[in-house]
Write the structure tokens for this entry.
Amino acid sequence: MLRQFVTGIIAFVMLAGVAVAGPLEDGLAALDAGDYATAMRLWRPLAEQGDAKAQFNLGVMYDKGEGLPQDFTEAAKWYRLAAEQGNAPAQSNLGFIYENGNGLPRDYVEAARWYRLAAQQGDAEAQFNLGLMYERGRGVPQDDAEAGKWYRLAAEQSMTKEDAIPSQIKAQEGAQTQLGFMYYFARGVPKDYAEAAKWCRMAAEQGGAQAQAALGLMYANGEGVQQDYVEAVKWFRLAAEQDAAPAQAIVGNLYANGQFVPQDDVQAWMWFDLAAEQGDEHAKEGRDEVASRMTPDQLAEAQRLAREWKPAAER
């Protein structure tokens, strides 16, 4: 009898450890394969039965228009059903819908409320967005210290590109950038260039263009890091290659004046033009000034380079 009992316990433990696929998992597999109809067919019954994960997944499909017409109102409906059950990603997405007025009337107070519920559960996107709400005074009293608190929580999360979804990684990078800026400008925290450089470097190494440009500026000025013009150009260029207009204007100015790089009017015109096309007025002025001293052949070459240029992500 004892042997049968022990054998039964072992069998139970072994079976409990076996991952059994179900409609939710099958729907995810279908979604990964681009079979949106099957994902919808599997998830809708679960969502209608109250499964919060399925409700969230349906909300995402309507939000993105995956396999069906984009419908923010329907997305908000499913997000709310999941959010009211405590699903953090749904709470975060519902906050985003309220903040931007997609599918629901814009309501910053409601946005902050849903962001807070998700942020308190450790959702990095919600923590970052709640920080932005405090920094901007939207739906909550303007409070730099409180903004910094939520930025730090998102910035310090342990995550890797292999384990986290891209939007969480992007939120962490944004939080690191904003925290760096707060230290640089002494907003909610004491001015500390070393801390500013530290957080901007973390974001820059994740590909954050704003942080890359800021880190370039700190290297150029020797703020929080040892002055290093080679490093400054490296970070300015990385940001410019991501189509960040301020960085493109800076790189254009460096080439125009031969500052930290060999003087090159063709490169200067190209970078100024790329920034100017995004509405940068200083870049427009720089482009015109450089053009006034270029030969027709140089100008034609610069125009060709600008036409053929693509952001790093599209190459």
In short: DSSP finds 17 helices and no strands in the chain.
